[in-house]
Amino acid sequence: MILSMSNGFRLLRIEYLFSVLVPCLLSVYLNEYEITSHIWILAGFAFYAITGNTLNDVIDMKDPDEIETLRKKNPSESLLLD
Known about the structure:
- This is UbiA prenyltransferase.
- Helix 2 (14-30) packs antiparallel against helix 3 (39-61).
- The longest helix is centred in the middle third of the chain and has 23 residues, at 39-61.
- This protein is elongated.
- The chain is mainly α.
- It contains 5 helices and no strands.
- Residues 1-5 and 78-82 have low confidence and may be disordered.
- Helices cover 74% and strands 0% of the residues.
- The two termini are 27 Å apart.
- The chain has one domain.
């Protein structure tokens, strides 16, 4: 169970989530908004980042030459792909 969970986190690249949320948080800070009143907008952007990343990986997995996505899917086979 833990192994599949860690593979799920590896498949979901957290840097995509941060690349979406950091500009949102920066705009909240610069405009001096209350973060509690805009938490649902931030959650929506986080959901957008996660689903966009997952959809991108699903599309990339259709291409058998896409090595990076295959490595994320099966990290134990990454040595065979090198």
